[in-house]
Inverse folding.
């Protein structure tokens, strides 16, 4: 899952990014409203965490502009403004949730997971299954045919994305957008290396292979590949 964090307080931004990264989210940070609006308009995100008091362009203006453009990405407003009138203004502008500073990270994480579920970007169940492969999104534990599989953070992100889009061709660009931030060099062979290692762990000596390369297109998770 890829998150845009628009926050001008460096200490807060680092704190949130570290916590989200530990929970397997990929985070892009925008330090001001101008860059935040640019990223929100040009990149694909599963959710946006948006401070309202920003330099250059304030958070409410960002929110209004992306909603006017028809973007339905879930947004959590994160701000020191805690008056009921200010909250109402945020919701009226198109916010999905509103969290007042200071806050506990556990609450932010819970609210993020909740809006992702409501937006249908995350299934109601936390256990993904395809054929004899399963993936627990809370423990990040994978199993194939009853055998536990240990995954690195990037391997987990790629496998989760493949399972959420089972039997659909997933391009390198799509994998990049789901598992890396926007500074990633898509021309490198890092994705191929991770796919190779993931395939070794998931398919190994299994008779039925699940992860397949579609030459010139990308990858697909499919049990009856022909």
């Amino acid at each position: 899952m890829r998150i845009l964090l628009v926050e001008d307080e460096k200490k807060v931004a680092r704190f949130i990014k570290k916590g989200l990264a530990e929970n397997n989210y990929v985070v892009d940070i925008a330090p001001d409203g101008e860059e935040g609006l640019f990223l929100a308009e040009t990149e694909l995100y599963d959710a946006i965490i948006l401070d309202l008091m920003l330099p250059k362009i304030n958070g409410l203006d960002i929110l209004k502009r992306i909603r006017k453009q028809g973007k339905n990405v879930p947004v959590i407003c994160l701000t020191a403004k805690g008056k009921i009138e200010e909250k109402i203004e945020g919701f009226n502008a198109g916010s999905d949730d509103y969290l007042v500073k200071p806050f506990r990270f556990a609450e932010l994480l819970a609210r993020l997971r909740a809006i992702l579920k409501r937006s249908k970007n995350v299934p109601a169940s936390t256990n993904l299954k395809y054929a004899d492969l399963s993936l627990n999104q809370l423990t990040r534990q994978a199993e194939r045919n009853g055998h536990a599989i240990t995954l690195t953070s990037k391997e987990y992100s790629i496998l989760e994305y493949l399972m959420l889009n089972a039997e659909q061709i997933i391009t390198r660009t799509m994998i990049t957008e789901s598992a890396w931030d926007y500074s990633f060099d898509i021309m490198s062979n890092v994705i191929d290396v991770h796919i190779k290692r993931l395939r070794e762990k998931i398919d190994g000596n299994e008779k039925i292979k699940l992860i397949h390369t579609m030459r010139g297109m990308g990858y697909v998770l499919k049990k009856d590949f022909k």
